[in-house]
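Lecture 7, part B: from sequences to assemblies.

Below are the input chains for today's worked example.
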Amino acid sequence: MRNDETNSQGTGEPGSTLLGAPSRRGPMNVFPAWKYTLIALVCALGLIYAAPNVFQPDAAVQVRALDGDSAVGAADRAQITSALAQADIGVIGLEDDGNSLIVRLAQEGAQLSARELIAETVNADSVDYVVALAQAPTTPQWLQDLGGKPMSLGLDLFGGAHFLLQVNMEDYIAGVVDNSAEGMRDTLIDGRIRFLPSRNWIDGQTISIGFRDDETREEAKTALVDYQDFLVQEREVAGDFILRFTLTEDKIRALEDRAISQNLTSLRNRVNELGVSEPQVQRLGRSRIVVDLPGIQDSARAKEILNKFANLEFRLEALPRARKSQIETYEYEGRMQDIMRRNIVTGNNVQDAQQSYDPETSQPQVSIELDNEGGRKMHASTKDNIGRSMAILFIEQKPRVRQLVRDGETIEEYYTVEERRLISVATIQAALGFSFRITGLGLREAQDLALLLRAGALAAPMYIVEERTVGAQLGDENIRRGWQSVAIGFALVLAFMIFYYRGFGLAANVALTANLTLLVAIMSILGATLTLPGIAGIVLTVGMAVDANVLIFSRIREELKNHPPQMAIQAGFDRALLTITDANVTTFFVAIILLSIGSGPVRGFAVTLAVGIVTSMFTAILVTRALVNLIYGGRKLESIKI
Amino acid sequence: MSDSQARTFQIDFMGKRLIAMVLSAIVLAAALGSLALQGLNLGLDFTGGSLVEVKLAEKVDPQTVRGYLVEAGFTNGTVQTFGSDEDLLIRVPPQEELGIAGQVGLGDEIFVALATQYPGIVLQQSNYVGPAVGDELAEDGGLALLTALLVVMLYILFRFTKQFSVGAVVALAHDVIIVLGCFSIFGWTFDLTVLAALLAVIGYSLNDTIVVSDRIRENFRRARRGSPVEIINEALNQTLGRTLVTSLTTLFVLLALLFAGGEVIRGFATALSIGVVIGTYSSIYVAANVLLVMNISREDLLVPEPEQDGNEDGSFP
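Predicted structure of the full complex, as structure tokens:
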């Protein structure tokens, strides 16, 4: 069948192959050398990038500075080493990547106690470092140099907690409008611009202020020029001259973005202190935030920290001559205490806060450091009020849900209940500056307050709408079971293919192995997270990937009835190609739909399904073909077994 | 083994198509009836509420555990074993009166209440889904299913003809309804992973249907004579070997998942296993049947000749 013409590719147009049997030219079923090389190269690359997943990670403890940037000091490092040595905890390596220190432990069982010990050592005086349980990859250096890294494990395989938080935007926007209205009123009063008294300034996102004449309104418009978030309109209603300030949709979006990013920052700071090596805090959609805490031990604590919305306000004690509208009354140590409505400084001006103990009374206290603006305000207010009391108001917002029936449909409404209480009323002894202490709190309260003040205030209230926590033990079990099913399924399919297709089955099995390797490699390169549904996707890919081979082989069987072996092989591959493409393209569509609409487990599955389709097309069409060509191609065949 | 080349099938599939049609109709009616009357046993993902899975040191009667929970003040929870006798699953429906913070913390409280009774208890997982999120997940899931069907329909319309397009979608809907019906009839929990499985069933069954359709189209184009029933029968027989082998290998791995994959993945594996069996059947009987019902003919499938200008239509009236 050999011929001198070099049409070695041999991909005739489909349909022509079944007509004239011996008319084909060139050695049949032979790829040019570059094609074999390329296929081998892709498979080799797959092997390299899949390899990091084989190495079991070391149990480790990660130490990183709370501010996130500075490295772990040499002194602290020495302390850690000696503390661990004293406690007889084996260390097999210390690595510093500039941001954090990874302490690799010899035994996995020592991880918890090692973390305790390190935390006590480095955070003895004040909380400077985050100490978290971690898994240190043991990928060999040469693989790392090539960019090889293992797939990261999802929460269902690693253990950990996933939270979905809803930011209450309605409340936040209403608050912004409310504050702006207050500010406008103050500005007008300060500028002695007379406005008409009205009970309902605010209607949704609109503030309306009435004036007696046009000149006053113009004056007010100039005075209020700073409120640029609002669209300003002029109206005349019943002889009154109205100035209308409306928040535009663009502005509302901008405000929401600002609120979300401030919430994200605050949450990241909070989550940082939970002792998790790779926490993830991300925005999802318009008003949601996802928090993933892989490997967290105490999810109840995490929930407390995430759900807390607390702030402080520093206010002066009300003097007897104060007007009623200027004061608020709270209970404090069994009596009623009048304080001013206006605050001097709020928690938003806090730069740092640390929980410690009062050296004299041993009671918990919070040391607070204010920023420039806060310090200035605090100084200005206290220097003229020595001898007067200052009150600290603790404000906590607790999320609630209630059911409402609207238009015959039951809907849930989320709202927050605000709890305010005085935690301290103390006489101002001297002008206060940037730093001072607060006492009068329980230990837990003091710790939480310090953390929340440090982390920064949340711009808008949030509440948890979804939580998924998986224990470490279940995670391990899920991994074990997942890989076990991959192994069993894979073995069954390999055995069946050999039994059913013999030599061709062997080629298909090599292709299937290449497929699994490439799939893992691509997932690793993409940085995809492996989840249990993802493993299910891999298993399914193994089962379905043989389909392409089966299609080709059964086609070859059929063609063998009418054609000599080489011709049948050629025709089998060519004819099956179109079918394989059609079938895979549609399945790929389904995977993409899953990916774009689904969430959580659905996405994990969709990613493997989509990648699996691509790799199985490559392996079935090219790898199998290359192998079949190598085994059977270019020589005279009397008959083949398939 | 020289028998391999002789392994061809001569089954008169289409001759029994009326029986198949009646069978499909009965099963579909049962599935739809159960879905209408009994509905689905929706999992936490869609109903909202709290779920706690714990592992105890020894075997415990769920009723005893429920007793402890009632004592601790959790009156409306359900307790069931999960996989083994030591694994318990506790589900609590949404509690409006608790407030969000209380509801979110419910799982922890239940665990603490149980931990006082059973030292050595391990928290395997704790989930909370807010009511709004549950509704959203259900909506998104339904949307994903419908979008998948629509996209498939359009793609096949573009690649094949309207008969194939309708046939494929009817076959897919048939499979999805029957799998859903099984979950309804047996009261199995329907959660997000089962939904993912359902979409995978669509993918799988589609794969099957397209392979069969492809062959039917090819045979129609090639055959000079023979009735549509004969041509379709031939195509079904030609693809039967492949259909069975692929279903078998897929079932192998699904059985591996079902028996070794653990409780979390069981619903997924069950849905897909049923789907693969039904999908195999439907690509033979449902999709091909629709073609006959819609009077497929050779003229519908003639390839428009790209070389001949001015004859883009390619089909004859």
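Note for the exam: Chain B touches chain A through 78 residues (CB under 8 Å). Keep this in mind when comparing with the next example.
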